[in-house]
Design goal:
2 domains, 18 strands, 10 helices, globular, homodimer
Chain lengths: 370, 370
């Protein structure tokens, strides 16, 4: 579930009881205060050193232990947003055991803390009409049963004759099909923008980007060539037909968009720019790329820039000034300039973060299908 | 996402990179072998002692460290099922950082390992028609925006004139609205039983049982009186009207069931037995009860046992021989016998576990709405 304040729990569970000492105090963590300060707590009497690793601090911060064995630290005031964090206990990074709001990821465990502030942000859950998030399975003869998460906008169920445009939204490397909703709040951002009349009602399709089990989960970025080839087959041959069969989608390029973050951003550009007959909107959020792969990955697009410009209604790239991928994105845009391929560009503050993903999605959602 | 083998990841993430030592080896955990043995691994070079805590072993098991700092243990062969587990690192219980399959809970963190075995179990994901899991929000004037997870059976979307019976399915204390699908595999169990013609297509409604924020998350079991009163208002005044407005439900008692586990099992009996005009099927899975509350919690039911017997088509209680709640459930059934209230009873092996929850749900699902 999504919660404004993630708080404590007293556990009454046979399984837990047998594994935790009786003396364990009740822990509230994180505790967000009215002044936007946040207190993090962890019960770890035997630990030698506990640090907090959070994306609103540049470096890990040491926590202090009290006489009960509870480590804590209070930070802030923190700029309102939703941030990942983790504890580092004697060198081991773990999620906060007292917080059920977890960052879905296959490579690390982080918890999430939301500082709501005094006025709602674009990703704040409000009392507006809410869309539906659906968890579905589709079948691939090569990859087996594949998960996909789908957002349908408010009114979708109540208007059975209405048809909608579709945004395909890809996660980053090691993320899962749940990361865009649970960390990126894609559904809430759209609920709020639709309620304000700033975005068109649309369907958002959030697939799982690793072509597992053909491509191992230890095989690097999603935009790696082997994964691109396998996922491309799955995306165009299985996923898109499943969506267009099971949802009331408008099936032409002007009503199809593709966007993605990091490794999924690299995938987005590869799928989108080489298939402008299928997507009139292509948006990279800090897309993962390598300079020596520009020509290979954009072979179709670069062979006919005029066609790309003619087909695309929006080609958009967003990247943070402190993002490790800032440089390669600047180089890519120089190549686009040379090829005379048109694009829009947002250079934001910050780095390779889901705070920026929320900013980028809320920006492009207002530009789509108009 | 759900996966048969939960395996590794190589992380390419600025956030993670800064917080984990470069020397960290690639970890595969858990690794399920063809002979149903399982290897668990954890990289923790600075830890003094690491134990594995899993529900297929009675007690925590010590793991061994290699020269790289990787702790591991191989156990089994293990009886095929899906089990929760956690690592205990120098006294701190944490989920497996290399496994994205996590037990949704507000009070502890566990990971999940699935031993599939050689033939599919009732909760094994198979290539059959799959229903949809929807994440929705509904509004409560007292509790704010409330989450609920809803299963609609295969064919629901394709048959817009079909109406369905409804099972309300409640989680245990400190669980969340996601626990019945992610740990209990309620959707997969129904997909499989429906495919085999063993269960009727039905809608399953899985609400969040804590009346938060009116009732604090640290306030004990869901079946505590204060939570019962607040959640009862929400359930009958907000949740049921939301479901019956937004889903094609058959709205009479013979097409409504309620079931729940542990604290949610206590809630189930309180809601169900006192409202047999609304529910003809009432099923407790190791329901949480206190003997001194029997009379108070069953006031309506006990005042008119004949009405209960007349209204209910199924009153069912399942509990494990090793469950801490076995005794109080036996006492409750003695009272039911004295009152001449009819019920069915399954005494299973095992304890207060989600392995038993899957057994109980797959048992009662074949008895509902027939």
């Amino acid at each position: 579930m999504t919660k404004k304040l993630i708080v404590v729990i007293l556990i009454i569970s046979a399984f837990v009881a047998k594994s935790q000492p009786n003396a364990k105090p009740i822990i509230i963590s994180p505790e967000v205060h009215a002044d936007n300060k946040v207190t993090f707590r962890l019960y770890a009497p035997a630990a030698k050193e506990v640090k907090l690793n959070t994306q609103f601090e540049k470096n890990p911060v040491s926590m202090s232990k009290d006489e009960r064995g509870v480590w804590s630290i209070t930070l802030g005031p923190v700029k309102p947003d939703m941030y990942p964090y983790a504890f580092n206990i004697d060198g081991i990074q773990v999620a906060d055991p007292n917080n059920s709001s977890i960052f879905p990821n296959e490579g690390f465990q982080n918890s999430l803390v939301e500082i709501t502030g005094s006025s709602p942000l674009v990703h704040t859950i409000q009392n507006v009409s809410h869309g539906t998030i659906s968890y579905r399975y589709y079948h691939s003869s090569e990859l087996g049963t594949r998960p996909v998460v789908i957002y349908t906008p408010p009114g979708y169920e109540a208007n059975p004759k209405a048809f909608y445009p579709v945004l395909y939204l890809l996660h980053g490397t090691t993320d899962t099909e749940e990361t865009w909703t649970k960390v990126g709040r894609a559904n809430i951002i759209l609920d709020n923008l639709i309620a304000e009349g700033k975005a068109k009602p649309m369907i958002i399709v959030m697939p799982y980007g690793r072509a597992y089990p053909v491509i191992s989960k230890s095989s690097g970025s999603l935009r790696n060539w082997d994964n691109l080839q396998e996922f491309k087959k799955d995306f165009f041959n299985n996923l898109m037909p499943f969506i267009e069969k099971n949802y009331r989608t408008i099936n032409d390029k002007n009503n199809r968009a593709i966007a993605g973050f990091s490794g999924g951003g690299g995938t987005t550009l590869y799928f989108g720019l080489n298939n402008t007959d299928k997507f009139a909107y292509v948006c990279g959020f800090a897309p993962g790329m390598l300079k020596n792969e520009f020509d290979r990955n954009n072979e179709v697009a670069f062979s006919n820039p005029e066609q790309v410009n003619k087909n695309l209604k929006l080609f958009w790239i967003g990247v943070g000034k402190e993002d490790g991928l800032y440089g390669v994105n600047q180089e890519f845009m120089q190549v686009l300039d040379q090829k005379k391929i048109k694009y829009e560009n947002l250079v934001s503050d910050g780095g390779h973060t889901w705070m920026n993903c929320k900013l980028y999605l809320s920006t492009i959602a207002q530009k789509l299908f108009k």
